[in-house]
Amino acid sequence: MPLVTTTEMFKKAYEGGYAIGAFNVNNMEIVQGITRAAKKLNAPVILQCSAGARKYASHDYLVAMVKAAAEETGLPIALHLDHGPDFETCKACIDGGFTSVMIDGSHESFEDNIALTKSVADAGRAMGVPVEAELGKVGGKEDDGPAVEGESPYTDPAEAKEFVERTGCTSLAIGVGTSHGVYTSDPHIEQSVVKAIRDAVDVPLVLHGTSGVPDEQVAEAVKNGICKVNYATELRQAYTKGFMAYMAENPACFDPKKPAKEGMREITELVKIRMTNLNSVGKAE
Ligand code: G3H
Ligand code: ZN
What we know:
Elements: H1 6-16, E1 20-24, H2 28-41, E2 45-50, H3 51-57, H4 59-73, E3 77-84, H5 87-95, E4 100-103, H6 110-127, E5 131-135, H7 157-167, E6 171-174, H8 191-200, E7 205-207, H9 215-223, E8 226-231, H10 233-249, H11 257-278
Parallel strand pairs: 1-2, 1-8, 2-3, 3-4, 4-5, 5-6, 6-7, 7-8
Helix pairs in contact: 2-4, 2-11, 5-6, 7-8, 10-11
The site of zinc ion has 7 residues, from loops.
């Protein structure tokens, strides 16, 4: 199957009361670890890469790998740019085979975020590529830089409404208390904020910084209107755990396939748990 956009995926997810898992990739092992889980569970999936991952693996390799995964599995798979830092990067992905992009203007002022997001949303619309934007701060550090000290982590519902109307973005990442990377205190999703934003805007809502958030909180947020759920850190942890455990047991091994297989197996098991929690099992059509 060719790559699909997120448009149809999100429509079905909202109607069906489930969410799509979006998993960060930067090499073949992570792509295959994730898509093996998706295949086993017959689940739609978004594979996404940050600007850093795109630089590491290179644009053409990423597109080719994700296309190969879609062909091999026959599943609906979207290739998404995660935390696009500027217009140029987003445009290169829109023109270069990605089927969804995110422009992250959340570090800008409200008005500058609107202007930047609108420019990307216009470019995406012209090519039939959906555009995710971000309003409010997700804490921690992805490729998007640290949240501002002392600033409210929550997206304001009225601002979200105005932002979506003025930019034409097709989905929105919101600040609801989550944070990128490893949590240093107990994670807490402020469900009342999810609900209030869901009531205020009519585009799909995206949860960032989900690694380490208890599954029950995530499932509740999906019930309250989250449609796409992003995982990155815990995939890296799972891969490294499997890889290192193999090397600890087989210190003389110099065949990278062997520890890599264990890393991939850990990713597959983890992704199966997350997809089951998001209720996306059996939803690939
Ligand atoms: O954009 C990517 C995600 O928000 C991943 O966050 O590394 O905390 O899972 P995470
Ligand atoms: Zn993120």
